[in-house]
């Protein structure tokens, strides 16, 4: 869930194509547009093609080879890498973990963010300050956040240890225990990103015509009714956007896992990307790793498009 | 005259109008907010304080104030070359990334926003695919490509992929903004004798400061915090940006949490300071256009 | 004058050792004007991840650390390395003759020597004498695996954490599986498995080894949170006296001190050593050693002075200095007499008398199979995988790489 | 239906007072218009009555009960917003029935009341549409429908027509008037358009900078503006205001303009000779040849509108608007002569602006 | 300054034709207004003249040269937009001088021309402000200033006043008129407000659905509307239109309404007995007691506006608006009687809508 995912806001716009507005553009100036196109488009186009699209295509190509990255790929293995990936229990675990992260984002993080957003958009002193505080974790680098929480969870020196000792029982090693590590990570994910979703919701709440809420007051809605019957439906597109970020972001989760657990203990906290790194990059299994990349890509694109089709149609 | 960036109405900033909240509601709000704020703040503060402790102090007393302030933990790092080197590297990489992203994306977005040409839809969607997947999915081929370009272990080797992966979003943000400029401005400029270049230079760019700030901040934050690309593409520690540096440091001083905490604190400190100084722009930037579309 | 620059990439993190190295390098620079040696540190994990890509770039170091084995073989096959055979054999084998043959053999494939030997190592149990005494365990009586598990039980009963383990890094636990497999399968068993005879690594002795390991795991002998602990954490646990035993390298007395909370660790007198015990009714013997054989690999475009430097580095005098100050087990013939440290001496003797030296499996079997061995070792100890499944997975990975 | 009373109501935002004590009493069933220039506090006052804005001081009384601390719902008022504030996610029917739904009315009752209101406002064919699918005028009607469905004690309107175009505005104005004639609910109507106020309201309250300037029936305000502000605000085109001094004795006072022109004023005005005054002349009272003072000047601008033509001519160096018949042969640059009877001349004290 | 001619100009968006052949010739220095309901194609026509929109067929001729393929700048036209389209990042002076700057005029020349225009429009104190710091009226003046600075051959205005409030609109209207009187540049002015068109223009062109309905001076259109559409469009409040049939013989024709009321019509109208017609009665011609036919009905609505009162009364089952003097004692529900002289009664063929 890195910052780049913000862009997805524009996803809804992506398919929109040319609207009536552009139709107004005069055609009598057709002559003068070519110099602009020829000068303005190529830099972006070239960079994007060479460093984004081609590597993606090459990943698809490599994924059919057994290759350790030395020299050129020569050993064609067909679909074997894909079979290996899908049979790998750590990969299955990674898929489950990604699912879990999505679930927690949807069921916990977004409601929490929404709840906080409604609180910090009320007329109370210090609301702006609270917003800043809540947003703070989001601007910290994932690596730093992961490191900080590694310390918090540390059974010897960390805060978890401190609390446990205070209550007189033995310090748990949350990150070292297969049963708890993933939950510990989920907590960090929520901690790190709820502020971002909260900001989205604040922006969404501010975009709601204040007089509509006043109309609800006049109509006699209680605070909760106003929220449920007016605010929430009007936040629809923001909620969908937020969900979209949560989903795409969770699929991209990597930077934070590395300092926390690196995917361990015994692969209990792998995500797709850490799996790719641990099993593809560090082991120099380029073919295998590329297969993971291709699978991730397919998942992202499928989710993005079906989500867009199902939920963002009206935006 | 269309107001280009009318600030949204924000109850929290105008403390005056409307009906006042009841005492009960207020108490409820403050209790909830303070609890959550504590959850956010405590890890950060203990990290900073931990940097002032000795290891045994840390062990016995992770929360509280240091029993003896170990200024040298911080002092040694501050005076070390590696700290400043990493910060400098991060800054340089981020600055180059921001500059190129802004230039390339604004130019491309201008074409998409204002010029009708065959295939513009397809081309835009082509860039949009860049939003779908993270650099991680193609990291291995990307590595090989950068190697073939001879850019491995150079600043450009990190900057160019970061720009490339940021283009999709930046172009969309720019394009949406450009299209939001009043059409009449375009007409007026034409009547005044502008061509496309003139319009881009004299009208679009000067009016786009908010979106330039937004895209600039997004790409800066992304670059400043990025880990995986430098991890794969840089070799020399002398070129490491700080997220890599912090991991190396952790590797070296793995059990000396007090030093690690001091190092973490010092590396995130600039981020926090800048955040509080520029919070208005950062928040506006990161949530830009999120609700409007 | 044009300077030759030798870039030297290493993973060593102990400052005192690096100081010794730097001293050696500076001496070499002094003796060879026009040569400059640049030392580059890379953290262990990063190093392993980077080397393949580094090798193929113009940024490749002149020489870098190697653990030998399959990794070195793969690197050699890229053609990016320069073999040192010629240099070793020049002047009638002047260099080769100064070095233990076992060390050279470990770095040889296809009749070429792909790295200059630097040191050997041997993994053994180190223990905290004080804690053993407290629990009433006598280390000298631990001859078999049964004795060992009894000792573990006793320690546990005395409220002492028996073993420090670094499950987060995984490879520290692969020592257990490797030693158990060596003891259970014996030298021949290993040779057969590598040759793909029978079920290979899925054959009965390897499963049996896993079962022993699983039993140990069930005793919960490791410190709290060992699955997330790094190797440094494990050393710290041992050095702080929080755990009684550690299965570790020959340099443990030094590293436990560096990693301990106080920075001093256990006093050397308080540390004992015993070899990995034998298994009843199995062909492996206690003198079969498991441990690294490290060398320095030279890359294709390294300056010619690199060989010169490495020859100097492995010359008996320098090796003695390293043995004394950096506490390594030297590869130069006769240099082990410089080993002064009593515990290191024991290790040196063990090497001198060894019947078989097995390199680390995560290096020997190549990065990929090695990673699987590491994964499986952790999985067995923590009860994630049955020993049979684990053995099968290792074999699957092995046969994929060696069709 | 209910009476509404404001008792010395004040509103301050922080230290800035924007309503400085307004007292007003509105009888049951009356239609009151609040007019005034932008920013004078009309909306604020209305929102205080609605319960959307806290009252800093004074009392709002609805149906003889002080309602200062009641919520909008408890006050039983309905409000039509300038932006209509329809719920975008609900259909027209849902919008209109929302209030009843909240108060727990059974479905059939809601449907019936909504239908009734929809029939009254000609909204029947639109009941299933969303607001986004409606034209401006239709939205406006839905907003009114939402207000009447609940049968409130008081209707509040905050510039409900200002988002409509001129033609539609005139039409909706009639509809509001007709509606009020039908349902007879007490109504308070905020607008800055004096024509709207005059045509709609039983009584008009003119606000200026948070103070009440005058209150009365439309014709009272038109004929007897209490001060310069009201005089200039009411009437379209606006009254011409000229500086002058009182001249002429006793029974025949006159205002002398800067160029010496004397304009006779009614004898009953309380003016003193030499007093500095402002003279107010309504354009519609300046017609050629009807007796009274003759005023003449060069024609500066001729604006035909069909039945009538607006002529701007120069009087004592100032442009003065007169309305003449459409047939009148006005011509740019020609000399224009108009007459005004003394009793149509308004005079105000120049300092205080009070009508004399 | 230049003449402008449209020769059978057409515009199609794809297969949809929105301008169906308009021909028009505008003399040098004339002020022409294009009026018509929303969507009738006024803006499209104007933009074709400006060169902002391609011409599908026909020719636009400026100063006797066909300019179809020239850019706006080459046509030397200036345009004032509805939204003003000021450059928000430039000061007033920069806005006004932008065109000159682009054409490479030297700085002192620009400054001089800008100052001159600013003086003319009273913008001198505002030259250093940004548009955001200006009021609506001031922005409007800057937009005009930008147009005059360059001394164009033709001024084009696209509803330049529709974003202003009523008061300001009246004021700016005068300013535009005054400006035209000063500079005398040929001007084409688009509006949907017929009052604006009538007060401003020398000649008015009424457009409807992409076709020209009528063209002439304001008074021509008001007095002799060529058809029902123009009749209903020009005049405010709008003409009352009633169905009727021709009755009465030869010299004394009359229109009989559905309830039997007969309205005398002028003898020179080309009507046949029994012909189905529409009768048009302007509200301002319906006054009590001036002779002509007497029309009576129940008062439905009384809207006082000060000098005049609009009375809506029932005639043959339809509401009819009459304008009476402000003093007239109109009362809701009472009987209202108005007279209309035969020559003020407009008659149109019911089928074709053509004036008879
Ligand atoms: N929340 C607020 N904080 C401070 N001042 C305010 C606030 N709301 C309104 N005001 C001020 O109170 C005064 C009255 O505002 P109000 O909205 O009632 O004017 P209005 O008469 O309705 O104007 P308009 O015709 O433009 O709607 C204005 O000067 C305005 O600036
Ligand atoms: N780009 C376009 N594509 C298709 N149809 C268009 C386009 N632009 C305008 N039209 C149509 O052309 C007709 C005329 O539009 P135009 O904007 O000229 O109307 P207008 O008279 O200026 O209306 P208004 O008073 O609302 O500004 C309308 O029916 C409109 O829908
Ligand atoms: Mg208001
Ligand atoms: Mg238009």
From TrEMBL, chain A:
Entry keyword Transmembrane: yes
CDD domains noted in UniProt: TM_PBP2
Transmembrane keyword on record: yes
Species, as recorded: Neorhizobium phenanthreniclasticum
Superkingdom of the organism of origin: Bacteria
Classification via InterPro entries: MetI-like, MetI-like_sf, UgpAE/MalFG_permease
Taxonomic lineage: Bacteria, Pseudomonadati, Pseudomonadota, Alphaproteobacteria, Hyphomicrobiales
Record-given protein name: Sugar ABC transporter permease
Protein topology in the membrane: Multi-pass membrane protein
Any Pfam family the entry gives: BPD_transp_1
TM spans (from-to): 34-57, 90-116, 128-149, 181-208, 229-254, 286-307
PANTHER family: BLL4140 PROTEIN (PTHR43227:SF11)
Segments forming domain ABC transmembrane type-1: 95-307
UniProt keyword list: Cell membrane, Membrane, Transmembrane, Transmembrane helix, Transport
Record's subcellular location: Cell membrane
Protein family according to the UniProt entry: Belongs to the binding-protein-dependent transport system permease family.
UniProtKB/TrEMBL annotation, chain B:
InterPro entries given in the database record: MetI-like, MetI-like_sf
Transmembrane segments annotated in the record for this chain: 28-52, 91-117, 123-143, 155-174, 186-204, 211-234, 257-278
Keyword line: Cell membrane, Membrane, Transmembrane, Transmembrane helix, Transport
ABC transmembrane type-1 domain segment(s): 87-278
A Pfam family assignment: BPD_transp_1
SUPFAM superfamilies referenced in this protein's UniProt entry, alphabetically: MetI-like (SSF161098)
Cellular location(s): Cell membrane
Name this protein carries in UniProt: Carbohydrate ABC transporter permease
Organism: Neorhizobium phenanthreniclasticum
UniProtKB/TrEMBL annotation, chains D, E:
Single GO term (MF): ATP binding
ABC transporter domain ranges (all copies): 4-234
Mode of membrane association: Peripheral membrane protein
SUPFAM superfamilies per UniProt: MOP-like, P-loop containing nucleoside triphosphate hydrolases
UniProt-listed InterPro entries: AAA+_ATPase (IPR003593), ABC_transporter-like_ATP-bd (IPR003439), ABC_transporter-like_CS (IPR017871), ABC_transpr_MalK-like (IPR015855), ABC_transpr_MalK/UgpC-like (IPR047641), Mo/tungstate-bd_C_term_dom (IPR008995), NA-bd_OB-fold (IPR012340), OB_MalK-like (IPR040582)
Subcellular location: Cell inner membrane
Domain of life: Bacteria
Keyword ATP-binding listed: yes
Keywords assigned: ATP-binding, Cell inner membrane, Cell membrane, Membrane, Nucleotide-binding, Transport
Chief place where the protein resides: membrane
A Pfam family of this chain: ABC_tran
Assigned protein family: Belongs to the ABC transporter superfamily.
Protein name (database record): Sn-glycerol-3-phosphate ABC transporter ATP-binding protein UgpC
Gene responsible for this protein: ugpC
